[in-house]
Predict the structure.
Amino acid sequence: MSSLIKNICCIGAGYVGGPTMAVIADKCPEILVNVVDINEERINLWNSLNLDLLPIYEPGLDNLIKKRRNKNLFFSTKLEDNISKADMIFISVNTPTKKKGVGAGKASDLKWVEACARQVAKYSKGYTIVVEKSTLPVKTAEVIKTILEASQLSPDDKEKKFDVLSNPEFLAEGTAIKDLEYPDRVLIGGENKKAINSLTDIYKNWVPINKILHTNIWSSELAKITANAFLAQRISSINSIGAICEATGADVREVARAIGSDSRIGSKFLDAGPGFGGSCFKKDILNLVYLSNYFGLNEVANFWEGVVLLNKWHQHRITRLIIKKLLGTVTGKKICILGFAFKANTNDTRESASINICKDLLEEGAVLQIHDPKVDPKQIEVNLGKKENKKIKEIKDQNYFQLEGQWSFEKDITISSDGADAIVVLTEWDEYSKINWFAISKKMRKPSWVFDVRSIVSRTKVLEANINLWKIGDGTNN
Ligand code: NAD
Ligand code: UDX
């Protein structure tokens, strides 16, 4: 299908911009796709010949990059040049929670989006369709439009024309390519039919037309935040029930199966775990809380804030529980942490439950050996605000007291379990479900514990290996 759009520029080469543009380039070989970013180091990694060095780990992404890069998919820092050539511009930059000023801690920080709008206003030529790909608070399109329209007032820029569309992205990390290739729906919000059709024509190359939804622009912006709020709410709901299961002898997996069989509830997103992480859920709910308060809807705000508060409580609850099982103290005890990414199949650690749980354990004086198949130890250093201490690996005879509150990275799970009192499974990486517990048990100090916070290890195998097991949401733990 041929589209009116021949040249796309995507501003922001992150977890959304990179994979989304790789799929568009693959499905629409006649469109030239330029992904630009101010972060030169990130762009260099996107251009690296060794595909293991791509800045994002996402199954299937390396194949797409290999296929399309330098054919119709380009990564560069040349914003001015690529904006001026584009007839459609995707804004795909980060929109984190504001750290200071009005709305701090809740509202989205839109400084990067505003910066993009100003760059588009300055460098674009002729008619340009500007697409909000980032998740944005309702009414952000108004801000973008105001900036773009102001640029049209200058006598030199009379030929500039813009339309703004909202086209939020629903991909989840770890399954991004599949989500992009077979989306449940594509949402396009806007006013101008011609602009909406231009974007629809691109998606029509691989998405059935009945899955491409058109709404007004504000519904589209709000639908994205609402989807994340509903999904996160399910996780807080099941984790809250998991705590009741542990107290009563019920099993959260059995409860989830029973309620999930009700077609009105559905079986997805009911896995109890260490609490939701990732760059989106907390930020987007807090944004909804801010919006509700702004409109005087305080009860609505409190309702949604509860989802985030429960998540935070739940993460601290897990640490308290580990301490209790380890005879009331973890000071000077070695604990192996399996998994630092916020979920499996990504190298992203943003808002990962592992960050809070590790920080709590370090604060209590534990000595941590952290393993993750894809996360760079330098990233863990940034998240924990603490340098790695490699001396942990040299400690003999359980003399960990001298390194209280320190951590190090270990690639080999068997080595990291040497002398450990406990292993805590925090990310559901497939390899953690295949661990040889007999071999690990021989290395650990007794009594040893496995805390299975993702419910992925075999109860029988762990118990047969003479290791105590605590499983999330399992009332038979006690
Ligand atoms: P990210 O931090 O991975 O990437 C954003 C990129 O934008 C960074 O590389 C940054 O350098 C670049 N950038 C910022 N300002 C710029 C500017 N003025 N010019 C050029 N580049 C600039 O973020 P992300 O995870 O890709 O998220 C982007 C947006 O998509 C956010 O609004 C997020 O809420 C939304 N979203 C994310 C996901 C996800 O799974 N990560 C899913 C759906 C939607
Ligand atoms: C989410 C949304 O799913 C996606 O549509 C949106 O575009 C971006 O935000 P993402 O954060 O990448 O995607 O991953 P997701 O699969 O939603 O998981 C979020 C968190 O919830 C992870 O920490 C995950 O481990 C946790 N989770 C998910 C559970 O604890 N239990 C579940 O049943 C599902």
Summary: The mean pLDDT is 95. The longest strand covers residues 127-132. The longest helix spans residues 217-248.
